[in-house]
């Protein structure tokens, strides 16, 4: 291999598929509670959907770091 060339990593496609699977699972989970949430007052629904719309992002930091560096935690 030539000097300075970069070998492709399997982590990026694997991580991308993992992220898609995570989003799909999260959507199924939240949608499974939609009947119960839908019976709540609109002002009670709002924080639930805001929180669930933000919380799914939190685990992705480690996955994105792993995709780039091969480590789960910061060095």
Describe the 3D structure:
The protein has 75 residues and is mostly helical. It has a domain at 18-69. The chain has four helices and no strands. It has helices spanning 11-32, 34-38, 42-55, 60-69. α1 (11-32) packs antiparallel against α4 (60-69).
Distance between the termini: 28 Å
Radius of gyration from CA coordinates: 18 Å
Give the topology string: H per helix, E per strand: HHHH
| Discrete helix count | 4
Ranges with pLDDT <50 over ≥5 residues? none
Give average pLDDT, whole number: 88
Biggest pleated sheet: none
Percent helix, as a range, is 55-70%
Shape: elongated
Q: In percent, how much strand structure appears in the residues?
A: under 5%
How many β strands by DSSP?
A: 0
**Content-based structural category:** mainly alpha
Quick recap of the structure?
The chain is an all-alpha fold.
Structural descriptors:
mainly alpha; 0% strand; membrane; Multidrug efflux pump subunit AcrB; transmembrane; single chain; DUF2842; 75 residues; 4 helices
Write the layout of secondary structure elements.
Layout: H1 11-32, H2 34-38, H3 42-55, H4 60-69
Helix pairs in contact: 1-4
